[in-house]
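Hey, can you fold this one?
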Amino acid sequence: MKKFLLEEPVEVVGPKGHRHRLLRHFCKGCRICVEFCPTQTLDLDELLKVRVAHPERCIGCRMCELRCPDLAIFVKKGPRGQGAKDEWSKEKGPAA
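Sure. Predicted structure:
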């Protein structure tokens, strides 16, 4: 985990393979991502932090990622009908 991250990112994989990585401590609850999502995939929780409320609705358009002013959301579009490869959690080789 990087030094600037106060907590681990939350990762959600939907049934279509689209991955959401949420840096919840960066989120200020502005609702921009929620309002720009064409499928109402995102919502805010009781702490006013972004959450993936309906991962099955996600179409992988990345509007939430592109509009987030705090860089709190990252989306990787998955392959159709299959689970996405786990590129974010791959272990790196031994350090030189």
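The beta strands are 10-13, 19-22, 42-44, 50-52, 73-76. Let me know if you want another pass with a different chain boundary.
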